Amino acid sequence: MKILISALVVIVVLAGAALAYALGPSAIATVERPMPESFSGAEVKRGAELARLGYCNTCHTVRGGDPYAGGYAIETSFGTIYSTNITPDEETGIGRWSQEAFSRSLREGLDREGHHLYPAFPYTHFTKLTDQDARALYAFFMTRTPIRRSPRENDLPFPLNWRPVLAGWKLFFFDSGRFEPDGNASDTVNHGAYLVEGLSHCGACHTPRNFLQAEKRDDFLRGGEAEGWTAPAIAGDLPTPKGWTEAGLKSYLTGSFTADHGVAAGPMQPVAENLAAVPAADVEAIAAYVLPKMRSGAGKLAPAAATSEQGGNGNDEGRVLYAGLCASCHEASSPARRAHGMNLADSSALNEATSRNFVNFVLAGVQPPEGRAGSFMPALAGSLTDEQLTVLAAYLRHAKAGLRPWDDLGKTISNVRETMRRADAEPQR
Ligand code: HEC
Ligand code: HEC
Ligand code: HEC
């Protein structure tokens, strides 16, 4: 039955594509590149903050590359999509795009010439942007340094490399439309909803997706995936045993270490780094909107009886590994502040149904954002064998979380090691 429905959807998507191809959205004429002086300082400043709130830098800048010049690779289950150059270069960037073309790309997922864009670009969320915010973003990007750099060709199989197919996808999964405030909610909560559902697209990672990569609306923020990490549920049943407070959430969202929830790492790290650079009122609004969704259910309570002293399951080797490799930072307070990790009993990574994040943390460690001070844990990929990590994980799951060992552990360890090998081998682009 599931296969039949899948096949049906695929057929309709292709038919939609053919239709949309025939009708075809139109190109918007080029303009003379606007003079930077034509924008007000206040507009450019808010544009910079909005660019932070939408993490434009994360996806449009390669490591060590020119800001916003594109080429950043986004791996999907179908292939690799590369971001474009959004500096105002007239040949390779968006220098000759009008305000109208720019706003349409963010809110309708179309480039200036009318080609459909891949939803790896989160326009399914950016569609909620107000005219005013789209104008401020335009002012910000048009006043950046133009960089000449041609976008890299996507690496996708047929028929997915044929953009008209996206018209069919959009027919099913894309709701174009501006944000509509809830009349019963406060201005703060409405602003938070506008950011979380729109520009800051929390659901792009924290909402599960269907087999065609569309977010499942009914499971909004109930746990998804991002770049080989699990983005834990932040609504409904949470994996974290400790509840969230407003102060704790705001600290976590802006990259500070919190005793109950650790520090934002993996794909959440650049989110927090950006949120640390926006006005407090924006973060406040995000927290005000998300927090009530988080109270609804702590996943499970950490068993009071389990302590790190118990060997458990006769797993003495696990206990010894933990004492030798981890306890100095994860038990009580370690003297070096930046090497102080949380009590692992409270860690979402340890309490999640999948071992993904736990393995990511242990093998890759935690490094602060480039050029910043912050929480540090060494990468232990070279210090632990697969067998040792398996034994250690079983010990911690039992002693700290009172849970059975993970079923997916062996597979996850080899996947994560493979991903790390590929990242190391990758040449600087
Ligand atoms: C999650 C990654 C991601 C984020 C975040 C992101 N983009 Fe993009 N963006 C992309 C990708 C990938 C494409 C190319 C899509 C394609 O080729 O179909 C793209 C395309 C675009 C385009 C179309 C350019 C062209 O030449 O066709 C514009 C404009 C753009 N992004 C602006 C922005 C702005 C402004 C922000 C922040 C508010 C932003 N993007 C945030 C991934 C991202
Ligand atoms: C690019 C993907 C991505 C985006 C966008 C994103 N997150 Fe996350 N988030 C993650 C990942 C991955 C983790 C797990 C990282 C960790 O444990 O350090 C995480 C962790 C969290 C946590 C901690 C959960 C726990 O149980 O420990 C909270 C809270 C959170 N995110 C809130 C948000 C909010 C609010 C937004 C939008 C403003 C957001 N995230 C946007 C990927 C993302
Ligand atoms: C040099 C100190 C140090 C050592 C040694 C260390 N860690 Fe960490 N660990 C940290 C810091 C700092 C963090 C980031 C703050 C946080 O999230 O607790 C962290 C984070 C983690 C997390 C993520 C917690 C969460 O949900 O946010 C896990 C899981 C973890 N460490 C497990 C281990 C294990 C298992 C070992 C031993 C094999 C280990 N660590 C050794 C310092 C250390």
Automatic annotation (TrEMBL):
One cellular component term (GO) for this entry is:
plasma membrane
Cofactor(s) the record lists? heme c
SUPFAM superfamilies in alphabetical order:
Cytochrome c (SSF46626)
Q: Where does heme c 2 bind?
A: 202, 205-206
Cofactor note text: Binds 3 heme c groups covalently per subunit.
Indicate which residues the UniProt annotation says bind heme c 3.
326, 329-330
Q: What is the protein name for this chain? A: C-type cytochrome
Organism listed in the record: Jiella avicenniae
